[in-house]
């Protein structure tokens, strides 16, 4: 297990460095000069040159890459071109909003999705199963921002139960929770369908395995068969999907944050892209990549804990 | 001759499938006595495995028993409440499955599962269950049972896993051991070792063993009596020597002539039974083997064959055999 953990974490770092390089190359290749953009059209060439120098853009590319890595790994993600604030401060200010939204959205989706998946297995082949199938596919197909707009229309505009925009008053937990409900609903609803389908499929597959029959052949009670023998294996694909899910839910939070006018990593990054605020774009993307890698690695380690066969992958 | 430990009486079972039913077992009657090894032979799809799973009450959800009984020590287990049937499993009747690769859960250690499998054993602590399991692994010939207990199934070889599966089945000293194709997934050397082990264990524990296999060699090695199945029926039942030396039912004869091990003449051609199994969802009116039988008459094609007694302990389901 320890051997697997070390290798898996090392792999995560290799991926992180590759992503950083790729990201640097991409930003480097995009046309447009950040210095002239920052100073506006009427800046003199001398001023531009001065700013370029200060941003390190006059150095050789390899040196720029080196500085980028060195600074990033020491937690210095550079300064906002416009506000001159450190990028990391901005990320740390906006990220918790997005994380709370993502976790809430995925949280309710997990609870409902797994319950629906189990229900479909219990009543498999019946009308309930088929209705759940139709419902799941329907939920998967609806884009989050469409749900968001209709949710605002119904619950905020017509019924006036919940606020339409914002993240609530800082310090007032009640208003923050009320502001969280609609976005979390819109963001999580597609995942209910995904998870219900996945849990149904993997549980059905595992229940047909021979070792389930073996456990029954020794007279183990059905509950023990399901929880100790079936669910332990059936939950593995769900954990893998959830890790990827949290990543993609954080990136699709961009839409929902835009619709609900919530401050978050999504609004931060779209604003920065529009203003060609390179340090903020790169810092945010880098931060999200690192966070995503952290989640996926953690999920892999959890899966390895549950399934001994996974641990042996690196042994061969 | 002692009383039958496990007997199947007139058992008929069908599977519900989309668009009808499949008659998987029809009027099967068999009995196995204490210390006896009964072989059930037949080609794929003849109902051998269905019969084995019916004996331990592990049929699929779409199976339906239409008549008959499975009696353990004279008591019909199919009429017992579900909870009591569950209590019998493993303790009175245990099963060894065909594929040792998948018979154990991949995510629990062999030891943890062997302890779990003693669920129906009352008044024994977890620690005792562990040492019982360890001793049984040693008994079935695992060289380092303590190591094997802590291993996951995928870390053991196929032969070791099948030994562990046999150990699991014997853990609670069941009265009947059912082995469904116990050697089919193994290579020839492993097969010989497992056959040898089963014979040894049978001598030690004196339990009744039912071996389901299409491998006639395994039956000849291990069994006292053989039941040959065809299309969901027992077509011939006989002591093992009598069956091999003097097969009476045309199907048994055909089956024995197809055994590659039994071909002495250097014909260079392996005989095969022409035709195929009848459609079990739409059975012919007469004998189910008539379409493939060399000696079938018009009566065979229209009238179901009677069960003809051919002496003590011997019978065949055929119009054309002489008593």
Q: Can you characterise this structure?
A:
- The complex is a heterodimer of chains A (316) and B (323).
- With 316 residues, chain A is an all-alpha fold.
- Chain A folds into two domains: 2-73, no CATH class; 87-315, MetI-like (MetI-like fold, Orthogonal Bundle).
- Chain A is built from 13 helices and no strands.
- Chain A has helices at residues 2-29, 34-39, 45-55, 61-73, 87-122, 127-141, 144-158, 173-207, 210-217, 222-260, 265-274, 278-306, 308-311.
- The longest helix of chain A is centred in the last third of the chain and has 39 residues, at 222-260.
- The two termini of chain A are 14 Å apart.
- Chain B has 323 residues and is an alpha/beta fold.
- Chain B folds into two domains: 4-230, P-loop containing nucleotide triphosphate hydrolases (Rossmann fold, 3-Layer(aba) Sandwich); 231-261 and 285-323, no CATH class.
- Chain B contains eleven helices and twelve strands.
- Chains A and B meet through helix 9 and helix 10 of A and helix 2 of B.
Provide the fold topology.
The complex is a heterodimer of chains A (316) and B (323).
Chain A: H1 2-29, H2 34-39, H3 45-55, H4 61-73, H5 87-122, H6 127-141, H7 144-158, H8 173-207, H9 210-217, H10 222-260, H11 265-274, H12 278-306, H13 308-311
Helix pairs in contact in A: 1-12, 5-6, 5-8, 5-10, 5-12, 6-8, 7-8, 7-10, 8-10, 9-10, 10-11, 10-12, 11-12
Chain B: E1 4-17, E2 20-33, E3 37-41, H1 48-55, E4 63-72, E5 75-76, H2 82-88, E6 93-96, H3 110-116, H4 126-139, H5 145-150, H6 158-170, E7 176-180, H7 188-205, E8 208-212, H8 216-222, E9 225-230, E10 233-239, H9 240-245, H10 250-257, H11 298-302, E11 307-309, E12 315-317
Parallel strand pairs in B: 3-8, 3-9, 6-7, 7-8
Antiparallel strand pairs in B: 1-2, 1-4, 4-5, 9-10, 10-12, 11-12
